[in-house]
Design a protein that fits this description.
Helices cover about 35% and strands about 15% of the residues. By secondary structure, the protein is α/β, with parallel strands linked by helices. The protein has a seven-stranded mixed sheet, sandwiched between helices. Helix 2 runs parallel beside helix 7.
């Protein structure tokens, strides 16, 4: 069986070594030694000034929207994982969709201003498959209209744009450390900001609002990462260069062996150091996709229709028609991509797609 992804697991002895530290400390949560060490190592690895690790990748979006959304209209993309839109609605904000660029698949920055109203409070855009949005254009729009910018960077671990971490852009960026991601903590995530005051708000917001054990800065929830999650992260992080190199090999194989006369590949934005997180292909029609998917499945190969459906079509989103996103969502398939995906399996995948 060839699944769309496969979790990278470090040698269990290395994970157990980290877990043993938590046992020795008798400290399993509430920002213990392992969480603090993981934050420090990630800060250095990613070349960012601030990071707060969390228990999953959706809580960061909810915290950012709670702090910056003000229950207003949030301009967002219809082409993302459902968590992006769900977080907006969950925080009593209103998603206002803007269609996507047909090649980069990120929000079309040229259509954002037309969607701004006096109720707009923020822009929440997704770096799709780790492919950066046009961050410079979005920043200019946000400054002009005095809006906040939140980036759903769930797929963007290690991505750099114009020489700096993609997490350095926007008022807040989030990341997912879910088990299917390049770097993972089993389940987890992180928040990033360069604003010291906002960093302070984010910190207490993810920790019940605590200001010491007996006082509170304000409203908060429990977004803390556990020591057991941090143990996994500390065991995985030393393998990041291997993970990236292995995934790059798979991407290069697809690039060289797929027949692109009837397929469209993701166009990576210029001046980007990409992370080889996903390999999406866009078919000429949904019928073509379904035909190929059926053939792959019958041979125990399981790609994923990701992202599908276009989020503006979900009942609780109540979005207007987004022709490009709806078309792409109906025709896109993410191919298997993970460490140690062998050449013979890649040959089989390409054979069934090309034929």
């Amino acid at each position: 069986m060839i699944n769309v992804t496969k979790t990278f697991l470090p040698p269990i002895a290395e994970y157990n070594k980290q877990v043993q530290r938590a046992w020795n400390n008798q400290w399993l949560t509430n920002r213990g030694e392992l969480v603090l060490e993981l934050e420090d190592k990630l800060r250095n690895y990613l070349s960012v000034s601030n990071i707060i690790v969390t228990n999953n990748g959706t809580v960061p979006l909810q915290i950012a929207l709670k702090l910056l959304g003000n229950q207003g209209e949030i301009i967002t993309t219809p082409f993302s994982y459902v968590a992006t839109t769900a977080a907006i609605v969950w925080e009593n904000c209103t998603p206002v969709f803007v269609d996507i660029h047909p090649e980069y698949l990120t929000i079309d920055e040229t259509k954002i201003e037309a969607a701004i109203t006096n109720k707009t409070t923020a822009i929440l855009a997704t770096h799709v498959f780790g492919n950066p949005c046009n961050v410079e254009a979005i920043e200019a729009i946000a400054q002009k209209h005095k809006l906040k910018v939140i980036y759903d960077a769930a797929h963007s671990f290690g991505v750099r744009h114009k020489g700096k971490s993609i997490f350095d852009y926007g008022d807040v960026s989030s990341c997912s450390f879910h088990a299917t991601k390049l770097f993972h903590t089993g389940e987890g995530g992180a928040l990033f900001t360069n604003d010291a005051d906002l960093q302070h708000q984010i910190f207490y917001s993810h920790n019940f609002g605590h200001n010491g054990p007996l006082a509170f800065h304000g409203l908060g929830i429990n977004g803390k990462m556990s020591e057991l999650q941090a143990a996994m992260g500390l065991a995985v992080l030393p393998y990041m260069e291997t993970i990236l190199a292995e995934r790059k090999k798979v991407v290069n194989y697809y690039n060289q062996h797929l027949d692109f006369s009837k397929l469209q590949a993701l166009k990576i934005r210029e001046t980007t150091d990409w992370n080889y997180g996903y390999y999406p292909v866009i078919f000429e029609s949904e019928e073509h996709l379904l035909r190929v998917e059926k053939e792959l499945n019958s041979n125990q190969i399981y790609p994923r229709r990701y992202f599908y459906p276009s989020l503006n079509t979900i009942d609780y989103a109540k979005g207007q028609s987004m022709p490009i996103s709806e078309s792409v969502a109906s025709r896109i398939l993410c191919l298997p991509l993970y460490v140690k995906l062998s050449v013979d399996k890649l040959e089989r995948i390409c054979f069934f797609i090309n034929n």
